Amino acid sequence: MQSQKQIYEWRGDKPILWLAAYPKTGSTWIRTILQDIIDPAARDGARIPSVQKSKPPKDARFYDIRGTQTHVFRTHCDAFSPRLKIYAGHCVGAIGIVRHPIDIFLSALNYAFARDEADHFIDQKPKSVEQIIVDGEIEHYAAQFVSSGGIETFKHVTGPLIDHFNGWHTHMKASNLPFLGLRYEEVVQDTHTAIISLLEFLGRPAQAEHAAKIRDVADRKTAQDGTFFWKRRSYNFQKMLSSDETALVETLFSSLISALGYEFTSDQFTVQAVASTSPALP
Q1: Which of 79, 145, 181, 226 could hold 281 in an S-S bridge, CB 3.0 to 4.6 Å?
Q2: 114: nearest Cα among 239, 228, 28, 26
Q3: Total domain count, the chain
Q4: What's the whole-model pTM score?
Q5: Of 78-82, 211-215, 268-272, which has the strongest mean pLDDT?
Q6: What's the domain range around 253?
Q7: CB 107 within 8 A of CB 93
């Protein structure tokens, strides 16, 4: 039987910069921003290739990144996934995204509902997040998410949520490779500054006028629709859950919240600063 490495053999000879993001962390939006930075003349619909279950297209483009011709790929895989081993010698850096874990959880539920994925729901009856909350079932789904280590349908690709961002950050640091960490909520709050950070990381001129144009084009290309109607919204759980529900879910998610560097909002927790063990965002 062929090994995973043989099945996904990569014959490219160019370096690779990764956009490494756990699912539902906003990577579709940030991927579009990144696309507009590296290839502003690209036609609408052009996308940075994804590497999940399959290898990139043979004709994958490469771009000038800090003076070097470089492929740019997105992946949901964790940094140590067997699926990425074949690319290890080509990696020249990574951009990572982290998002509040409760919002990842709610977004994953919303996505499963929008896609009518009945297997994810009690009695195989898909429900909106709003209806799940009304029916008092949020604890069931939150406990299921934590028990699975994240989104069940992706865990064979991503590994545990708690390790994903930190794993990429640690791996890049250990390999002495550049890493840019983006916190989704901060990108939503100040998209302009995030784009400036991306421009600087990629070795591009960080001009305010250019950043504003990139933001506007990305917003147009990622207009809200029925599947992604939560795009560019942060801290959704604070708007959707009652104080009691928030306290319940934060208790279940306490390890994830601390590990990813977020503060607790419910009264039962002392609001705390980011712990020293939380991911630093270079």
Answers
A1: 181
A2: 228
A3: 2
A4: 0.85
A5: 78-82
A6: 101-151+228-259
A7: no
